[in-house]
Amino acid sequence: GRLMHCDEFMISVAFITKSGITPLLQTFQELEKKGVRGRILTTDYLMFSEPDALKTLHSLKNITLTMFCTDNGPGFHTKGYIFKKDETYTFIIGSANMTDRALAVNKEWNTKLVSTEEGEMYKNITAEFNKLWSDTIHTKSYDEFIDEYRIRYETIKKQKNVCVKLTK
After folding, report:
1. Nearest CA-CA partner of 80 in 134, 29, 40
2. pTM, 2 dp
């Protein structure tokens, strides 16, 4: 509900899948028509996000998608949704990634918080988001990361399939 009625949104999630964005796609397309801008930050952590889901999000003109590349360093496991409506910011912070299981099936704990621009919460959460977003060492634009990410993702997927066949 918050997504459909916001003026702007920021999302930071570790994992994004096609089945996770499918229920949101119509809303994202409506927001595209209205010119509501959104920034989505994800990661290559555990190579879990599906390249086709990332491609779908990138194809929407109102969404800018970036990837925080962990380079086998510390994990990136954030799950935060920030919606701006007029002068109010609503944050949903918790355990839910942008996957179908997280959004519809799993037991997830999420907290909804509301703040103005003057609020400490707004300042802290958006400062952290912007710090990750503009990290010139780790964060790459879609065009910078997608080709290499897709190759790595497909390679790992093939390796997993081989392991499954060997254990059967």
Report:
1. 40
2. 0.89
